[in-house]
Write a structure and sequence with these properties.
This protein has about 250 residues and is of the alpha/beta class. About 60% of the residues lie in helices and about 10% in strands.
């Protein structure tokens, strides 16, 4: 086990945080109004008394951005966690399906699946994770039947009431970052580097977001509004839920 150098973490963040910002902008540029409209509940728009195309587009866009950014940043944090663990324990990105990180410590092979926060999946997703852990253990024991293997679900933020889940351990927030690094304060130490050039990079995102919204408002108005500007709710619902939705 090596001592983690915070300067290494800072350098990694500064050199790689741009990828997160580029991906969130790229996701906006690739977004299509029709695709998003088909995935949302048109009845909810009516129930919320949304009367303007701008209100509906804002509702669509904000929901998409929130969910999409969580996914993109979660993947980015996974890379950071693996980098840190490599520096301290010599860990590596696992090639086993469903496993993100492997490393050895105190004679134990840890297999880790990394998620953003503690409430990341339903019962089906958790069952799939347990199955992946079992499959990974069988794969690793093929070459070493005496190998002790512990499975861990690591969550980058949040808290969990218990960490011993029977078949695996669940470490969240501070407990997770300490587990992969040996550093009790790492969970707060990484906050400052994450803000590297955030203001400048976010301005580019804001401009892309405004362009996307303006384009969507125009498209929505042309496709789902009457000549007097009122929303054609019947046409919108038909597009979303009709047996043969038109393009």
């Amino acid at each position: 086990m090596a001592k983690l150098k915070l300067r290494d973490v800072t350098n990694y963040v500064e050199n790689n945080i741009g990828d997160f910002h580029q991906r969130r902008i790229a996701s906006l540029n690739e977004l299509k109004l029709n695709k998003v409209l088909k995935s949302k509940n048109p009845y909810l728009f009516k129930a919320k008394y949304l009367l303007e195309a701008n209100d509906i587009v804002e509702s669509l866009a904000s929901a998409f951005v929130s969910s999409n950014e969580e996914t993109i940043f979660g993947n980015w944090l996974e890379g950071l966690a693996i980098f840190i663990n490599q520096k301290v324990f010599g860990g590596w990105k696992s090639g086993i399906p469903g496993i993100d990180l492997e490393f050895d410590d105190r004679g134990i092979r840890f297999i880790v699946t990394i998620k953003s926060g503690p409430k990341w999946g339903n019962s089906g997703a958790i069952a799939k994770m347990k199955s992946d852990f079992l499959s990974a253990k069988k794969t690793l024991r093929t070459s070493n039947s005496k190998l002790r293997i512990d499975a861990v679900n690591g969550c980058c933020y949040g808290r969990c009431e218990k960490y011993d889940m029977g078949d695996y351990c669940k470490y969240c927030g501070q407990r997770f970052w300490t587990f992969i690094s040996g550093e009790e304060t790492l969970y707060t130490d990484i906050i400052e580097p994450l803000g590297h050039s955030a203001k400048e990079r976010n301005q580019e995102f804001v401009e892309s977001y405004a362009k996307m919204k303006n384009k969507f408002v125009l498209e929505f108005s042309q496709s789902f509004c009457f000549d007097d500007g009122a929303i054609d709710w019947e046409k919108l619902v038909q597009f979303n839920s009709g047996r043969q939705s038109f393009r």
